[in-house]
């Protein structure tokens, strides 16, 4: 549970930064506060829930130092996450779902250590750095040319559209 918590706090923020996004100190503090509360609700002992990036990094180092290398279950989990988009009914066409899987694979190689990707048997795809590097450039340009308020409003609008699509597709189905 601690590893999942750190994945949604420290690793998430690191990945956003690596993709060229800017996170304010206030946003970072708010993110850790939110995930500390989520961790508490999940039953993680409070003393294992970091307050900030420094503590999260220390806990992450501790956790990774005692974890065994990837095993068969790790590989299965990684592939289940990568293949989720192939079954996602929100995207109408098969080529869209395959393309989304490809983009997920590209981002995985960009965001994770290559040794980790090899141990998890993440497929090595052509031009795997193209999309993430282009996304990083676009994010940096967007960050410098569009106001923070406008970016937040657009992000909220995009997220509401995703939620609307999800609810529309899943309302009368067993997909959840």
UniProtKB/TrEMBL annotation:
This is ER-bound oxygenase mpaB/mpaB'/Rubber oxygenase catalytic domain-containing protein. The lineage of its organism: Bacteria, Pseudomonadati, Bacteroidota, Flavobacteriia, Flavobacteriales. Residues 4-123 form the ER-bound oxygenase mpaB/mpaB'/Rubber oxygenase catalytic domain. GO terms for molecular function: oxidoreductase activity. It comes from the Bacteria. It comes from Chryseobacterium aquaeductus. Pfam families: MPAB_Lcp_cat.
